[in-house]
Amino acid sequence: MTQATDMRPSVPMDADIIIVGCGPAGMTAAIELAEANRSVIVLDMQPTPGGQIFRNLEDNISQQSSDRQALLAALGPAYRAGADLIRRFRASSRIDYRPLTTVWEVRPDGTVGWLRGMDAGYLRATTVILAHGAMERPVPFPGWTLPGVMTAGSVQTLLKAGNLKPTGNVVLAGTGPLLLLLATQLHKLGVKPTLIARTDRFSDGLRAMRYLRRNGLLPVVKGLGWLAQLKRSGVRMTSGVSDLAAEGERKVEAVSFTVKGRRVRQPCDLLVVHDGIVPAIDIPNGAGLALQWDQTNASWRPRTTSDGLASSALPPDLQPERCVVRITGDARRIGGAEATIAHGRLTAQAILAELRKGDGISSKSQQAVDRTLSVRPFLDAAFPPGLSAKLPDDNTIVCRCEELTAGALREKIRAGFGNMDALRGETRCGMGPCQGRNCMITAARLIEEDRGACGSTPPVFRGRPPIRPLPLGALAGLTGLDPSATELLTLEDKPEHDVEATSDVPAE
């Protein structure tokens, strides 16, 4: 193992690099670093490598049943393309792959808290790569918590992981390439969507044409192919919808929306919603890393250099000598499989250059990143946020974990709880199992609404570990503790001669 030179010398390193996430970006970075004789630990929540994009690919390929072959055909060659990457990842003896492992803390100095079953502890490395991926944009709307309302990503996960297909009347609503891709995949599997209700408009596509570049033509052609397939199949599609609502008592029974000034109601058994994909910021925010607001996508993303180096936003007295965290893949910027692979490779080359290994970032790698991300401005303009464009009304649930409505949060904000942490402490918004991943953006926008500051950079909850639920029994048995970090700093406060002095301390 390489001993860090800029960290506490008494703390041994467990590896040269720890990678969080085993999708395309994480696997690519791990392979590059391992081939350069660096020791790598890869932590991932899933049971097999692949991330969301190549989820369960090994098992789906190994099965010869007609159902699995039909599934592979529906998911397309882009899904099967991950097989070689996974094979190379598995073949590397210098990669310590640890599946079913949840990361609940990351520190800018290279410390990572992990949990597997009831075992938990800390690992340390000279560099940490966050390749934990993206998430679907949270969209609270009337009825979104009803059984039978799912996101497009969830439906695709069920397809890949369990070959589970929806039945009955399926309506898809929202915007983005994933919505059209999923509709095409479902139709190939024999599930013809009843309706695709798109929030984007034809005019968005026309405005986006000015961002179209030669390198971005292939993805656009692929998307036009999906649209043509759906049209030939007779799948109804409407665009420019707004004011989506799911209706039903015990489960979703219908969806309603406004289009061209008219209210439309469509009975359905399953409502699939999607409003685009955004970087998952829970780990960077919990690590105290700097974030920036992406106005075009109405989302936060980590602030990094082009090769993924993050920066700490912690107060000076809490900052390490150097932030050793890099962020790559969709966790840094949404780009899809090819872009995440390209940036994972570039990030690994940057780390090797920092370690005085290798030749630095190659022009080929840089060109691959530029090429694969060149379509992003077009997609951003063609598929702007739709379902989340308007803030929810007072009756709509915002925090699903704590069942808090927008009206309840607005009332507390008007009563003076006008910053994120005060609102969290007063209402428990963001304190449930998801730890704010779904409600934080809406809570922040409600505060901005009260301030009359819509359009500025929304505030965030102060991140603090654990960012995932950590059983008390696992916490009690933590391994890998840093001795210097566990010193009792309050010894000097102990009363002398068993006489305890008291003082009045105003409560904050």
UniProtKB/TrEMBL annotation:
InterPro entries, sorted: BFD-like_2Fe2S-bd_dom, BFD-like_2Fe2S-bd_dom_sf, FAD/NAD-bd_sf, FAD/NAD-binding_dom, Metab_Enz_Cyan_OpOx_G3PDH, Opine_Oxase_asu/HCN_bsu
Pfam families per the UniProt record, alphabetical: Fer2_BFD (PF04324), Pyr_redox_2 (PF07992)
Location of the FAD/NAD(P)-binding domain: 16-293
The keyword Oxidoreductase belongs to this UniProt entry's keyword annotation: yes
Residues of the BFD-like [2Fe-2S]-binding domain: 397-449
Matching PANTHER family: ANAEROBIC GLYCEROL-3-PHOSPHATE DEHYDROGENASE SUBUNIT B
Organism: Acetobacter aceti NBRC 14818
GO MF, one example: oxidoreductase activity
Ranges of biased composition (kind: Basic and acidic residues): 491-500
Keywords, comma-separated and alphabetical: Oxidoreductase
Taxon lineage: Bacteria, Pseudomonadati, Pseudomonadota, Alphaproteobacteria, Acetobacterales
Sequence segments annotated as region (Disordered): 488-508
Keyword Transmembrane set for record: no
UniProt-recorded name of the protein: Pyridine nucleotide-disulfide oxidoreductase
